[in-house]
């Protein structure tokens, strides 16, 4: 048991380790890219991050989540207000309470309130939640990119006729009629003013692309309508893409990327439909892009493993999706190079029981191995960012999993949903309390976790985008409050637990090793951490239940990570680690 544990841990460490001195364990390579790849891969970023510094053209981003697409856990006040308003005006406090959850997402909020009231409340929210000062602060803090989620309903033209672009009629309760686009346009102007780059992110699709409340429409248990025959959602999506590209591709030099769909969930929507839709989007995009501007076409990985998209959007492999009818013809939809298409991965460690049960060691190794898998398996095909990640090591933030839904961490999730588990709760929820009430151990773990992600993703990927700029009370997800509490490096590379170059400091390695080998205990926690060294790319941001779908064991393709560990072994590193681990064990 000890030997197996030891080997798997060594494998995990070595995957990113080449020793640079006796006291430092360094991430492998400098950036994970060859100089040639570097200049091609970065596409637009080359010209925007004007410096010869290797880190200068990495994405260092932040998302303005919960603004133009609202999310209950980011602004519970807005949702409580709407619920109270309905309870008062209908005198029905049974229907409108957070347990019976009549208002659980933006869709049901608009439905309950009616168009005018919803419009009124949302306009106040758009005004109050983000303003120019936020952009100024984001730039001052050293970020170079802002990701802005927006829902398809921003393109609704008339709510009384349900008119969408191109004469399409689609009935939904959302507020639109240009309201969000006015704020989006302000945001783009602020980004220009403060020298920030912008990624537009289509975060909500008609019919919902994942059933998460952050798509606008929470749908835990039923089929989703996005791309489903007879629903009109595919046609509407194409019309939305055309409008979005027409309006924004040449509108501002600040816009460096367009993410055509956030988190389509391939366990619920056929992956070939998603792939087809991505190619459709590319066709529309490439017909409208400014070839000289190199705007990045961004696809989310659809919760497929690292490397899944390598041969798609790759002119050398136009045959791979042909059997499914989605193969694209590079002479009719010109793709000069597979590096024009960037893959966006989202990585969280809190939406499955097994991740929540992780030790700090196992958690950091997950990050390091995940970063490594991107560098090793993907970057030669497509640039790739970790476009969502957070400081969360529990899922305890209020409503994180949905209005009225509890946490997996303390087991309340399984009492408030139809999902079941065989695992015991990990503990009592704690991190929903203000950071000032956290103990030093918890604070250390959160900061270390954040630094590990910053260091790893900076070194091993095209860059990263933290989720989220701010929240009301979801502290582990809130850059602004984490920073205030000293749990986020300021400046962004001012690490405590890592070298300024991202190298892991020896005392961290040592403390993690001792955590991995609590040799005084025989209760098996060490084997737990040992088995957690594999990359868990399926850690979906299921703010509302994808972990019920994405279970342990459904991580197809992850085992493909195993072979490359051995390729990176070096005698020096083995010797170094051997000494370190021996010291811990003796
Ligand atoms: C609902 O009614 C209560 C009690 O009258 C009042 O305190 C509260 O402000 C009302 N809330 C809203 C949103 O109108
Ligand atoms: C939910 O609504 C039902 C009636 O529809 C009511 O009997 C029940 O008490 C409500 N539950 C809660 C927790 O408010
Ligand atoms: C933005 O809002 C904050 C309060 O949320 C306020 O302090 C600041 O002055 C506002 N900035 C601008 C430019 O209006
Ligand atoms: C929506 O359509 C109705 C009916 O044709 C029209 O009266 C109204 O002015 C339109 N509203 C907008 C915002 O265009
Ligand atoms: C979608 O568009 C196609 C082509 O324009 C049309 O033939 C089809 O009927 C439309 N489907 C729906 C559901 O509107
Ligand atoms: C953007 O500009 C390019 C280059 O001038 C042009 O080819 C393209 O059609 C324009 N796209 C849109 C949507 O206007
Ligand atoms: C296309 O991009 C180039 C380079 O960024 C820019 O100079 C030019 O104005 C753009 N053209 C249009 C039509 O936006
Ligand atoms: C677009 O990419 C090409 C090829 O990499 C590069 O030569 C050009 O400078 C880039 N244009 C901009 C505006 O970054
Ligand atoms: C697609 O083409 C590549 C290279 O041309 C080839 O190696 C591969 O076997 C082909 N795949 C299929 C499914 O035909
Ligand atoms: C690809 O498109 C071009 C131009 O439309 C056409 O000439 C060619 O035959 C197509 N190739 C395939 C394999 O469909
Ligand atoms: C700190 O808080 C966490 C979470 O409640 C708890 O598990 C841990 O035992 C506490 N540590 C100390 C040293 O108090
Ligand atoms: C780095 O952070 C430490 C606190 O963790 C702070 O004292 C120091 O001033 C920071 N360095 C810079 C250059 O801001």
Automatic annotation (TrEMBL):
<dbReference type="GO" id="GO:0071555">
    <property type="term" value="P:cell wall organization"/>
</dbReference>
<dbReference type="InterPro" id="IPR017853">
    <property type="entry name" value="GH"/>
</dbReference>
<feature type="domain" description="Glycoside hydrolase family 5">
    <location>
        <begin position="126"/>
        <end position="391"/>
    </location>
</feature>
<keyword id="KW-0326">Glycosidase</keyword>
<dbReference type="InterPro" id="IPR018087">
    <property type="entry name" value="Glyco_hydro_5_CS"/>
</dbReference>
<dbReference type="InterPro" id="IPR050386">
    <property type="entry name" value="Glycosyl_hydrolase_5"/>
</dbReference>
<dbReference type="Pfam" id="PF00150">
    <property type="entry name" value="Cellulase"/>
</dbReference>
<dbReference type="InterPro" id="IPR001547">
    <property type="entry name" value="Glyco_hydro_5"/>
</dbReference>
<keyword id="KW-0732">Signal</keyword>
<dbReference type="GO" id="GO:0009986">
    <property type="term" value="C:cell surface"/>
</dbReference>
<dbReference type="GO" id="GO:0009251">
    <property type="term" value="P:glucan catabolic process"/>
</dbReference>
<comment type="similarity">
    <text>Belongs to the glycosyl hydrolase 5 (cellulase A) family.</text>
</comment>
<protein>
    <submittedName>
        <fullName>Glucan exo-1,3-beta-glucosidase</fullName>
    </submittedName>
</protein>
<dbReference type="GO" id="GO:0005576">
    <property type="term" value="C:extracellular region"/>
</dbReference>
<keyword id="KW-0378">Hydrolase</keyword>
<feature type="compositionally biased region" description="Low complexity">
    <location>
        <begin position="520"/>
        <end position="534"/>
    </location>
</feature>
<keyword id="KW-0961">Cell wall biogenesis/degradation</keyword>
<feature type="region of interest" description="Disordered">
    <location>
        <begin position="518"/>
        <end position="546"/>
    </location>
</feature>
<feature type="signal peptide">
    <location>
        <begin position="1"/>
        <end position="15"/>
    </location>
</feature>
<dbReference type="GO" id="GO:0004338">
    <property type="term" value="F:glucan exo-1,3-beta-glucosidase activity"/>
</dbReference>
């Amino acid at each position: 048991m000890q030997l197996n544990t030891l080997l798997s841990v060594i494998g995990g460490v070595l995957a990113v380790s080449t020793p640079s001195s006796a006291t430092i364990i360094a991430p492998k390579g400098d950036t994970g890219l060859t100089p040639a790849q570097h200049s091609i891969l970065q596409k637009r970023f080359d010209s925007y991050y004007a410096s010869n510094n290797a880190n200068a053209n990495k994405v260092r981003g932040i998302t303005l989540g919960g603004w133009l697409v609202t999310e209950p856990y980011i602004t519970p006040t807005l949702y409580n207000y709407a619920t109270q308003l309905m309870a008062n005006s209908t005198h029905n406090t049974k229907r409108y309470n957070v347990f019976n959850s009549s208002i659980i997402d933006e869709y049901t909020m608009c439905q309950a309130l009616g168009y005018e009231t919803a419009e009124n409340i949302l306009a106040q929210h758009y005004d109050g939640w983000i303003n120019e000062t936020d952009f100024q602060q984001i730039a001052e803090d050293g970020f170079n990119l802002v990701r802005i989620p927006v829902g398809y309903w921003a393109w609704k033209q008339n709510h009384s006729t349900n008119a969408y672009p191109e004469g399409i009629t689609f009935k939904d309760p959302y507020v639109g009629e240009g309201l969000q686009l006015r704020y989006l346009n302000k945001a783009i102007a602020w980004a220009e003013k403060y020298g920030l780059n912008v990624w537009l992110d289509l975060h909500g699709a008609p019919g919902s692309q994942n059933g998460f409340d952050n798509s606008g429409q929470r749908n835990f248990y039923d089929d989703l309508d996005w791309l489903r025959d007879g629903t009109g959602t595919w046609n509407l999506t194409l019309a939305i893409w055309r409008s979005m590209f027409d309006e924004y591709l040449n509108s501002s030099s600040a816009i460096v990327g367009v993410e055509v769909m956030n988190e389509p969930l391939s366990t619920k929507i056929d992956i070939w439909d998603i792939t087809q839709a991505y190619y459709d989007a590319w066709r529309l995009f490439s017909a409208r892009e400014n070839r000289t501007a190199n705007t990045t076409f961004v696809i989310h990985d659809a919760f497929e493993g690292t490397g899944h998209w390598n041969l798609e959007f790759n002119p050398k492999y136009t045959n791979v999706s042909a059997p499914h009818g989605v193969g694209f013809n590079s002479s009719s939809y010109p793709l000069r190079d597979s590096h024009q298409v960037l893959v966006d991965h989202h990585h969280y460690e809190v939406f499955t029981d097994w991740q929540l049960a992780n030790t700090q060691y196992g958690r950091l190794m997950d990050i390091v191995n995940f970063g490594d898998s991107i560098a090793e398996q993907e970057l030669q095909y497509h640039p790739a960012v970790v476009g969502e990640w957070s400081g969360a090591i529990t899922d305890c933030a209020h409503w994180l999993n949905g209005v009225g839904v509890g946490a997996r961490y303390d087991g309340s999730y399984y009492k408030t949903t139809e999902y079941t588990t065989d695992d015991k709760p990990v503990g009592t929820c704690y991190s929903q309390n203000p950071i000032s009430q956290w103990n030093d151990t918890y604070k250390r773990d959160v900061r270390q976790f954040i630094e590990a992600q910053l260091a790893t993703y900076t070194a091993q990927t095209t860059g990263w985008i933290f989720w989220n700029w701010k929240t009301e009370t979801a502290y582990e997800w809130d850059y602004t409050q984490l920073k205030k509490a000293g749990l986020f490096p300021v400046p962004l590379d001012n690490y405590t637990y890592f070298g300024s170059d991202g190298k892991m400091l020896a005392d961290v390695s040592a403390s993690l090793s001792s955590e991995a080998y609590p040799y005084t205990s025989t209760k098996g926690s060490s084997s737990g951490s040992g088995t957690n060294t594999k990359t868990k790319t399926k850690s979906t941001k299921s703010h509302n239940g994808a972990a019920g779908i994405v279970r342990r064991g459904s991580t197809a393709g992850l085992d493909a990570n195993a072979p490359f560990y051995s390729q990176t072994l070096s005698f020096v590193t083995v010797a170094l680690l051997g000494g370190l681990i021996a010291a811990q064990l003796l």
